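User: Please check C-alpha cell order:
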Amino acid sequence: MCDMIDSQSAEKISRMKKLRRTLSESFGRIALKKEDSSFDEICVTKMSTRNCQGMDSVIKPLDTIPEDKKVRVQRTQSSFDPFEKPANQVKRVHSENNACINFKTSSAGKESPKVRRHSSPSSPTSPKFGKADSYEKLEKLGEGSYATVYKGKSKVNGKLVALKVIRLQEEEGTPFTAIREASLLKGLKHANIVLLHDIIHTKETLTLVFEYVHTDLCQYMDKHPGGLHPENVKLFLFQLLRGLSYIHQRYILHRDLKPQNLLISDTGELKLADFGLARAKSVPSHTYSNEVVTLWYRPPDVLLGSTEYSTCLDMWGVGCIFVEMIQGVAAFPGMKDIQDQLERIFLVLGTPNEDTWPGVHSLPHFKPERFTQYSPKNLRQAWNKLSCVNHAEDLASKLLQCFPKNRLSAQAALSHEYFSDLPPRLWELTDMSSIFTVPNVRLQPESGESMRAFGKNNSYGKGVSNSKH
C-alpha cells in the first residue's frame, strides 16, 4: 500500500513539474511574439467629454455580480505578513494559471486611439524592443527574494524605464505571479495604472519593463511625516479611486493595496502598481485563500477567514490609506498577529455581532469569547485630523465598514462630497488623461520641500524589499 501511495505521489509531482515547464515555455513564446518589436508609449491627451452622471450604474453591486465572475483568490507573497510563505514557495495551481495565461480583458484587441506605436529601427544591428540588450541598467532600486528592480534606459528611444528582473529556477519555471501580472497589465491602459512597456524572457530571467516612476506613496509620506497637505491627500485619493474604478469595472481586484504599491511621479501622478496578487474575477479557480493583503491593510472579513469577497476587499485598503495620508500614521498598525490586528480594528469600529454584521458568527475565525467587547467610536476620536477636513470623516467611515457589503464602491466614492470642491472637468477625463491636464490642478508644497526631494527607490512589486508595513 505504501509503495502504491509513493508511486502515485511521484507520478503526481512529475505531472505538475511537466505542466510548470510547459506553462513557462508557453509564456516565453508569448513574450517573444511582440508586434513589430515595439511597445506602447502613452501620450498625454486632450480631454473628451463623458457625462459623469449615471456612472454608478457601470459598477455592479457586490450581490449582483454573477457567480461565475466572482473571484476566488490564491495567496501569494505579501511583504510584511508573518503568515505568508517565502516567494519561492508560492503555491501554483494549474487550473487557475492556465486561465491566467489565456486571460484577456473585455477590451482586449481594442487599442486606444490615444496610444502610439513606435517602429523598431530598420537596421539589423540596432537595438530592438523585446531584447535584453535593448536596455541599459543604470542603478539598482531594490532587491527581494525573487526579483531585483533596476533603473534603466531604453537604447531604442532613450527613455528611462524600471526593469523588474525575476530570477527563474529550472525546476520551477516562470513564477505564476509574474505571468499573472504581465497578463493583466498588458490589457490595462489608464493614467493611474503603471504602464508595462515590454516583456523579455530568457532561460535565466523574466524581465518586465515598466515606465519609470520616481517614488511611491510610502516614501512620500516618510519624507513628509505628520500627515500630508489636505489638498494633496484629496488629489492622491482621487487618482487612486480612478484607477480602482477602472479595474473594478473590468472585474479585476488588486488585492494588495498599500502605500508601497502606489507609485508617485515627480509631477504628482499616482499609479497603481504590483499586480502580482491581482486576479480577474472572470478567471475560474477552485482555490480560495483568506491570506491576501498585507496585514495592516487587510479587512476584518478576510482576517476572520472569509473567502467570499469582491471589490469591497480593495475598498477597505483605500480607507486605511486615506486615514494614513491625513493622520500621518497607519490606521491599524498590528504589531503581533491577526488577533492583535482585529482588536485594533474593533477598538475603533466596535466589536461586531449579528446585528451589525449579518453572518459574522459563521466566519471560521470568529469566536466572540476571544474578543473584548468594544462600542463603536467616532473616527475623529481615533484620528483627530479627520475633523479638520470637510467631509473627510464621513468618507472614511463609509470605506472602513466591518460588514463588507456596506463599504462604498470606488465609483460611488468619487461622487462623495469630499471631492465637491474639485474642478468638474476631472470627472470628464478620458482614461489615459492625467488629472494634471486640468487647469489649476496641482500638488501643494509639503512642509516647504520640493517634489524633487523624493527618495530614489520604489518597489515595483513583489520580491523587492520595502521599508515598512
About this structure: Residues 2-32 form the longest helix (31 residues). Residues 31-123, 282-293, 450-457, 462-469 have pLDDT under 50 and may be disordered. DSSP finds eleven helices and twelve strands in the chain.
